[in-house]
Structures are given as structure tokens and as C-alpha cells.
Design goal:
The chain has 259 residues and is an alpha/beta fold. It contains seven helices and seven strands. Helix 1 packs across helix 7, helix 3 packs parallel to helix 4 and helix 4 runs parallel beside helix 5.
């Protein structure tokens, strides 16, 4: 039987290793029939990303510095050339804050690192959506999904400036959904509970966060990357054709609790 993504093309930003949420999403899309392109940030992870991409027969793997408009323009030009001028799916799983800003007080975040966190973690979605727009329009529409977290809605100790960046990302999803909806391009976010990824290691007190979610969430269990991959596959599939501008929580119900 044909898969839900047969004939679809996608670009995945944010794979770092096999434990990445972005990789869990990519596997779901590839298993469903999608042809995928990947980006990587820096030589340190290039080999690993290329090996993973090869395992799903990806026709394009390219570097991307999301802080550079020129680099983003180049990447989407390569994507257009690879996929005959079109793109159906965009997975944005990119975020960054300096480790020292996830340890002390949010109040002490310096101006330059504040803007760095917002640039990489939030504005990059805007820039990538803008670059993807003509490619998706050429396909009659498309779907974008990004990764957010409850720390953008509530104060989470040690999440600090990343929480402010996620709040900016959340608002960007809604405004992008409005702008791009007229071209049948949907934009959604997933708010996942604590997932053991490379990025999670930089958050002070991460094991405590996991323990609190397991204790207080209605389902009393951890979340893994495959749970997020399944949710993303739904939001990116045609089954969600009337879902846009929303956040899907994959956190065992923790977000619904007051205490």
C-alpha cells in the first residue's frame, strides 16, 4: 500500500545524531515514502548526519548556518534543484542558547547572547519559511513543523533565555500560519516533554525535569523521540490538512496540570 508521504519531498533541519528528535521525524517521513534532504551545522556532526541520511537514500545533505540569510538562500536553492523546483515538507528542529545562560539567572543574560538565542531558535523559522514559500507554492501547498517547549509559556527553572526564545517561536508559528495559509501552507509546532537528546544535556537539572514530569503528568511516563516523530508525521500528513497555527503537546499530559 502507498505510504502517507509517497511522492512528497521534505527538508529536515536539526539532525545531530540518531537520538535527535529531528531524526525520529525524518525516519517516520522516509518510512512513509518521502524523499528527504538534510542540513547539518558544523564539521563536528557532518559525518554522522551524512551516514543517517544515506540510510534513507537522501539525495541532498548540505551545511546550513541559520544565522546567515545567504546560507539559507543557498540551501533552499539546492533543495529546489534537487526536487524539481518544489518542496512539500519542512521540519525545523533548530535551537541554541549558550550553556552558561541555562545555569544562572535569566536576569543576567547579556544582550548579545539574548539575541543569539532568539536568532537561532526563533527567527530561523521565519527565514526558512520565507525561503520555502515559493517551493511549496509550486507544489500547491505544504506543511511546516517546528519544536517548542512549555518553557515558552511558563517559567521553567534553568530554561531561562531559551524559554523566551520559545515564546517568540510560538508567536511566529501563529503569524506564519496566517501569512502562508492563503497559499495552502500549514505551520504548526510540537511541544514535547523532556526527551533525552544531545541538546537536553546542556540544561541544568534535566534529570529533575524528567522526574517531575513522570510524577505529575496524567500518564506518569517519559516521552521519547519516537513519540514526537509520530506526532510530527500526523501534522505533516494530509490527514491534518485543516490543522494550522497550533501547538500539539506530546508530554504525557503534563501541560494540563496546575500542580
Amino acid at each position: 500500500m502507498p505510504g502517507p508521504f509517497d511522492g512528497k519531498t521534505g527538508l529536515v533541519l536539526g539532525v545531530a545524531n540518531k537520538r535527535s528528535i529531528a531524526w525520529a521525524i525524518a525516519r517516520r517521513l522516509a518510512d512513509g515514502g518521502a524523499r528527504l534532504a538534510f542540513t547539518y551545522q558544523g564539521e563536528r556532526i557532518e559525518r554522522g548526519v551524512r551516514d543517517l541520511a544515506e540510510s534513507v537514500d537522501a539525495p541532498l545533505v548540505t551545511s546550513c548556518d541559520v544565522r546567515s540569510d545567504e546560507d539559507i538562500a543557498r540551501v533552499f536553492s539546492e533543495v529546489g534543484e534537487t526536487f524539481d523546483g518544489g518542496l512539500d515538507l519542512l521540519v525545523h528542529s533548530v535551537a541554541y542558547a549558550a550553556a552558561e545562560d541555562l545555569e544562572g539567572r535569566f536576569t543576567d543574560t547579556p544582550r548579545d547572547r539574548f539575541w543569539l538565542a532568539l536568532d537561532v531558535s526563533a527567527y530561523s523559522l521565519v527565514a526558512c519559511a520565507r525561503a520555502a514559500e515559493p517551493l511549496m507554492e509550486a507544489r500547491g501547498g505544504g506543511a511546516v513543523v517546528t519544536m517548542t517547549y512549555l518553557g515558552g509559556e511558563r517559567a521553567v527553572p534553568h530554561y531561562n533565555v531559551m524559554g523566551v526564545a520559545k515564546a517568540t517561536l510560538d508567536a511566529s508559528v501563529r503569524y506564519l500560519a496566517w501569512d502562508l495559509g492563503q497559499k495552502n501552507i500549514r505551520v504548526n509546532a510540537i511541544s514535547a516533554g523532556p526527551v533525552r537528546t544531545l541538546a537536553a544535556r546542556s540544561i541544568a537539572g534535566f534529570p529533575t525535569m524528567e522526574a517531575i514530569v513522570e510524577e505529575r503528568a496524567p500518564l506518569h511516563r517519559h516521552i521519547d523521540a519516537d513519540d514526537v516523530g509520530a506526532a510530527a508525521a500526523y501534522l505533516l500528513a494530509d490527514d491534518a490538512r485543516n490543522v494550522t497555527g497550533t501547538t500539539l503537546y506530546v508530554d504525557s499530559g503534563y501541560h494540563a496540570m496546575g500542580m
